Amino acid sequence: MIVATYSEYWKTLTTAGRSSPEEARSLLKRYVNGPYLDHLVAGIRQMDEQGREPYGEVIPRVKEVRVGGKHAEVIDCQDTSKAGMADRRTHQLIPGTIKANSTANIKAELGQSSDGRWRVVGLSIREAACTPPSS
C-alpha cells in the first residue's frame, strides 16, 4: 500500500501541476497531508504565475521501504529523463528542461492518517548519486 500510494502521488502531482492551485489541492489531498500539501500548492501557484507546467512523467523506482508504526520512509531512484517543464499556454516542452539519462535520489516520508491511508508528509532530494534497483 505504501509503494502504491507513493507511485500514485507522482502521477497525481503531474496532473495537479497542470491544474489551478485550488484544483491541485483537491487532487493531492488524497496522497499528501500536513504542511507538505501547502508547500506543493504554493509551488503549483508559482509555476502558474511563471506560465509553466510539468511535462512528461517521472518514473518511480523504489529501492527501499522502511516502516515503523504509522511512519514510513521510501527511498527512490526515480527516472526523470522523460520529465521537464512546458509552457502552460501552449503545452509545448521548454527546451533544455529534460536531461537524458537523469535520475533523482528521493527520500519520501509517509504517515498513516486516522482514516488508515498512507500519505506523503515530506520529501527531499538527496545529494548522493543514486543507482536504480536491480530488476
Feature tags:
135 residues, two-stranded antiparallel ribbon, flat, 33% strand, alpha+beta
What features would you describe in this structure?
The protein is of the alpha+beta class and 135 residues long. Helices cover 30% and strands 33% of the residues. It is built from three helices and six strands, in the order H-H-H-E-E-E-E-E-E. Strands 2-3-5-6 form a four-stranded antiparallel β-sheet. A hairpin with a 5-residue loop joins strand 5 (103-112) and strand 6 (118-125). Helix 1 runs antiparallel to helix 2. The longest helix has 16 residues, at 2-17. The chain is flat.
Characterize the largest beta sheet: strand count, sense, and whether it forms a barrel. 4 strands, antiparallel
Broad shape: flat
Oligomer: single chain
How far is the first residue's CA from the last residue's CA? 20 Å
Would you report the number of β strands?
A: 6
Poorly predicted tracts of residues:
none
Helix fraction? 25-40%
Output the helix-strand order.
HHHEEEEEE
Radius of gyration, taken over Cα atoms and rounded to an integer in Å: 15 Å
Secondary-structure class: alpha+beta
Strand fraction equals 25-35%
Spatial sequence of strands, sheet with the most strands: 2-3-5-6
Mean pLDDT: 94
- Enumerate how many helices there are, as a single number: 3
